[in-house]
Design goal:
By secondary structure, this protein is mainly alpha-helical. Helix content is 68%, strand content 0%. The chain has a single domain, classed as Orthogonal Bundle (ADP-ribosylglycohydrolase fold). The protein contains 19 helices and no strands. Helix 15 runs antiparallel to helix 16 and helix 16 runs antiparallel to helix 17. The longest helix has 24 residues.
Length: 317
């Protein structure tokens, strides 16, 4: 059995998950321009602000919608995403969300219907639903219907079963990280096995099994990145982000640099890996100097605390 923290400080954990997502995103984005680790560390140390991308912008929107509604409402979530996109369209959005927003406006359909019509009616299996999923994993960390809640959050932009499954497995990793006590030894093997059990598509299930094998065999990051993938599709990126966390569960920094220094979709790899790491270690495990430089930190922190307050209230805590 996985040992869980006896008295979880939800603020500490939720702050870690939300701030971790944003910093993984921001430093991962910087790594596109500074792809050497020593130089990147120096750039982070000397920069005035760490700026995030659409990964964090959408995680913020997801947290805003959950806190305003008290849960997940796909239509409200889509409206929130759309409003944030219209205000900041330069955040680096892929083509999927703007296409959904346009179809909702021009065709009068719901966000879910618009998302189902993407890519010839198959829906997207990109990593966009997984990159922003931290608020769901945090808020529903104790919920028996976590998978369904992850599906609801994904449905406004990602209808493909693989896109949903990747987001749900990422949400499970974050949820379990909230529940685990960072003062105890990390249960790598059990965590990895449960990731496999939670998956519902062959593509995600097989990749999560490979994650467990590669972590158990101490496969180097270069090999893991090659075999697990690091592209914009969720089954070719989320598994490597999980690998980065499982390889370095006790170090936010090491997890981050493992995730982002091997090419590919660096900002999203960083966001996903560091959402789990932050939720596990708590905000105290994230370098303070980095936190102080994070763009829009106060709003992100306020949303994290509000999520924790509502979650605790709903649980009767």
């Amino acid at each position: 059995m996985i040992p869980t923290v006896k008295q979880v400080d939800l603020n500490f954990k939720f702050l870690g998950g939300m701030v971790g997502t944003a910093l993984g995103d921001a430093i991962g984005e910087l790594a596109f321009r500074v792809p050497e680790e020593t130089e990147l560390r120096a750039r982070v140390a000397h920069t005035d602000a760490l700026l995030y991308t659409d990964d964090t912008a959408m995680a913020i929107g997801l947290a805003e919608s959950i806190t305003q509604v008290g849960g997940l409402d796909p239509q409200h979530l889509g409206d929130t995403f759309r409003a944030n996109f219209m205000r900041e369209p330069w955040r680096g959005y892929a083509s999927g969300p703007p296409t959904v927003f346009s179809r909702v406006e021009s065709q009068g359909v719901s966000y879910v219907e618009a998302a189902q019509g993407l890519y010839g009616g198959e829906g997207s299996f990109g990593n966009g639903a997984a990159m922003r999923i931290a608020p769901v994993g945090l808020f529903y960390h104790d919920a028996p219907d976590l998978y369904d809640q992850a599906r609801r959050s994904a449905s406004v932009t990602h209808a493909h079963a693989i896109g949903v499954d990747g987001a749900a497995v990422q949400a499970w990793a974050i949820a379990q990280a909230v529940r685990l006590d960072p003062q105890e030894p990390f249960p790598v093997e059990d965590f990895a096995q449960r990731l496999v059990a939670f998956a519902r598509t062959p593509e995600i299930e097989s990749k999560m099994a490979l994650v467990g094998t590669m972590v158990a065999s101490s496969a180097p990051p270069e090999e893991a990145a090659e075999r697990l993938g690091r592209s914009v599709t969720v089954h070719q990126s989320m598994p490597f982000a999980v690998y980065a966390f499982l390889r370095h569960p006790k170090s936010f920094e090491d997890c981050l640099f493992c995730a982002i220094m091997h090419g590919g979709d660096r900002d999203t790899l960083g966001a996903m890996a560091c959402a789990i790491s932050g939720a596990y270690l708590g905000v105290g495990g994230i370098p303070q100097a980095w936190r102080e430089k994070l763009e829009n930190r106060e709003q992100i922190e306020k949303l994290a605390v509000k999520l924790a307050e509502i979650a605790e209230s709903a649980a009767g805590g």
